[in-house]
Specification:
The complex is a heterodimer of chains A (432) and B (143).
Chain A (H helix, E strand, L loop, with lengths): L5 H4 L3 H22 L1 H10 L20 H6 L13 E7 L7 E6 H16 L8 E4 L7 H13 L2 E3 L6 H11 L3 E4 L1 H13 L11 E5 L5 H11 L2 E7 L6 E6 L6 E3 L5 E5 L13 E6 L11 E7 L1 E2 L11 E2 L4 E2 L4 E3 L2 E3 L1 H10 L6 E8 L2 E9 L9 H19 L4 E5 L14 E3 L4
Parallel strand pairs in A: 3-4, 3-5, 5-6, 6-7, 18-21, 19-20
Antiparallel strand pairs in A: 1-2, 7-8, 8-9, 9-14, 10-11, 11-12, 12-15, 13-14, 16-17, 18-19
Chain B lengths: L2 E9 L4 H11 L4 E8 L3 E8 L2 H10 L4 E12 L4 H11 L4 E8 L5 E8 L2 H10 L3 E3 L1 H5 L2
Classes of the chains: A alpha/beta (432), B alpha+beta (143).
């Protein structure tokens, strides 16, 4: 169903490898010649772009880490002059600084096409009305699916997040046929429709594309029943492009990687050696189809497995399993990536001690983030008003850095794990 | 003119008040008055005791977050209207009250207010003009 680019998505392995080899070579040349960071890295390893002739040579190349993006903040890894850049996005960094990514016009096309393939895989056509309830802004979710819909020729409705009753009104009045949002929000929308007694006959949704956070098959079935749709998974990260790096087809048997643009590998996070198909390891991508940010072997920290087996849908592209976890301590809260180190950064910035406990839960299908912070002598006051003010100030600072609301809960001094050693700082109560 | 009040940060956990007040009891310190201000997550236990500095020490030694604040202790007549008249007196001078708590004394005709106000001096002069007793530390700790 709905294969947008059969010549690519159903290509033989030989043809795909030839395409990937040519693109890798070109991309490494671009990185080497235009990004001092990569020139230095390759020089140190004694590798020249001339040594890269086939996609199999990729294992000669060094890895790129999220910290490399931070160390070269904001534009240091860009391979093109600003004049060629048409857009930037940003995602959570490990400290106060965001991870900044950039796109040329061609990069936007690559990404839009990738997202369009995901919409097409749901049976999407130019007659669809794509209701985008991902956030618009620095986060890639909203604009990624929006451009994907337009690339396909469908109608995009940029609803963005929040205001559930308005979302439902738009379903009814605008005739939305495909919903794009986080799975937890889809569930929340479905329950709100049910609880409001609204008949599904008044809603034309037929499919949903959900991603940016982990979800289970049980959630998929619930969403499908509540909204009367078929639910599809989508995967992506801003460093590589955004949503559409890989996507679900009607077989729901792993996500097809757009490997002509984003070359996947799975490695053992300890030894850094590639693992065989079917073995869970850390997912690594090389942006062989992109110009502005030609990341080489970028370690996503997502743990999953891949398979090269041909899918029953007809596509031959590599499929990845749903990520089963992380090889770092990143949390995904309402689709927003949060690192415990960011929370620590905010506390220090606010002159507080870095003793904290993060509690993540899911209440009524929406993630909640609570940060327990110790009440130290210098913050304490005898009036509730002062303590409420301190709490609000800290919550505002957290919101600024994390881009998601954190409820601050003051606890007694000395009751939280200390910063020395491997303190357990995260309790994730979500059942996903 | 002021008396020292202890404020202790307390999490909303059952048994916590018993534990904290036991620390004071074990040090032989007597509580004269107390109030608890609470929110969903935490509370502030406010105490007037006979030995405030000692109490602060033992509570801090037990790892608690404690502060000492100067508050005003006022003696008022214990009869209908006694409190209302006092409040009117300070309201007329535009003195804002942050918090207060009250207790009656062993003497039949006196009641006491412990007040934290925005402007101490203004409050005291308004209260004195109204004829209230402003108690000093020694007299309240010995009550």
């Amino acid at each position: 169903m709905g294969i947008l680019k059969p010549e690519i998505e159903c290509a033989s392995r030989e043809d795909m490898k030839a395409l990937q080899s040519a693109r890798l070579k070109k991309m490494v040349e671009n990185a080497y010649n235009n990004v001092p960071f990569y020139k230095q890295k390759l020089d140190e390893l004694g590798i020249s772009p001339a040594d890269i002739n086939s996609i199999d040579d990729i294992t000669k190349l060094p890895f790129t880490l999220k910290t490399d993006l931070r160390d070269n903040y904001p534009y240091g890894l860009f391979a093109v002059p600003m004049t060629d850049l048409v857009r930037v996005h940003a995602s959570s960094g490990t400290t106060g600084k965001q991870t900044v990514v950039g796109y040329t016009k061609k990069d936007i096309d690559v990404w839009s096409e990738s997202a369009a393939r995901a919409i097409a895989a749901t049976g999407g056509t130019k007659d669809d009305i794509v209701h985008v309830s991902y956030g618009y802004g620095l986060f890639t979710g909203g604009l990624g699916l929006h451009y994907g819909a337009e690339y396909l020729g469908a109608t995009a409705i940029p609803v963005s997040t929040g205001n559930t009753s308005r979302q439902i009104q738009i379903f009814q009045d605008f005739g939305s046929t495909v919903l794009c949002c986080t799975p937890s929000y889809a569930l929340y929308l479905g329950e709100s429709i049910r609880d409001a007694g609204i008949s599904l006959d008044t809603i034309k949704l037929r499919a949903g594309i959900f991603g940016a956070e982990p979800w289970t098959d049980a959630m998929r079935k619930q969403i499908e029943t509540l909204l009367g749709i078929e639910a599809y998974d989508i995967y992506g990260l801003s460093e590589i492009a955004g949503p559409g790096v890989s996507f679900d087809c009607e077989c729901h048997n792993g996500m097809h990687v757009n490997e002509d643009y984003f070359y996947p590998e799975v490695i053992d996070p300890e030894t850094l050696e590639p693992v065989p198909d079917g073995t869970v390891g850390e997912l690594v991508f090389t942006c062989i189809g992109k110009e502005a940010l030609p990341l080489i072997r970028y370690r996503t920290r997502d743990l999953c497995s891949i398979t090269h087996e041909k899918c029953a849908c007809g596509r031959t592209t590599v499929r990845m399993s749903k990520p089963v976890g992380r090889s770092d301590d990143m949390l995904i809260i309402r689709g927003v990536n949060v690192f415990p180190s960011q929370i620590e950064h905010v506390l220090l910035q606010q002159g507080m001690e870095p003793n904290y406990l993060i509690i993540v839960d899911r209440v009524n299908n929406l993630d909640t983030l609570t940060v327990e912070v110790e009440m130290a002598q210098n913050t304490f006051s005898d009036t509730i008003k002062d303590l409420e003010t301190a709490k609000k100030k800290l919550e505002a600072a957290m919101q600024n850095t994390l881009n998601v609301h954190a409820h601050i809960k003051f606890v007694e001094y000395g009751t939280l794990p200390r910063s020395e050693g491997k303190a357990k700082r995260v309790i994730d109560k979500r059942k996903i | 003119m002021y008396i020292k009040q202890l404020s202790v940060f307390v999490e909303n956990k059952s048994g916590r008040l018993a534990e904290i007040t036991s620390i004071i009891a074990n040090a032989g310190i007597d509580i004269r008055a107390l109030s608890i201000a609470d929110t969903t997550d935490f509370g502030i236990l406010r105490l007037v005791v006979n030995k405030p500095d000692e109490a602060e020490q033992v509570l801090k030694a037990a790892g608690l977050t404690v502060s000492l604040t100067n508050v005003i202790a006022v003696g008022i007549p214990d009869r209908p209207g006694g409190f209302a008249e006092t409040m009117t007196a300070i309201a007329d001078k535009d003195v804002g009250v942050e918090y207060m708590y009250a207790f009656i004394s062993r003497d039949s005709d006196r009641a006491y207010l412990i007040m934290r106000v925005i402007d101490n001096e203004k409050a005291i002069s308004a209260l004195q003009a109204h004829g209230c007793d402003i108690l000093d530390g020694n007299s309240i700790y010995k009550l």
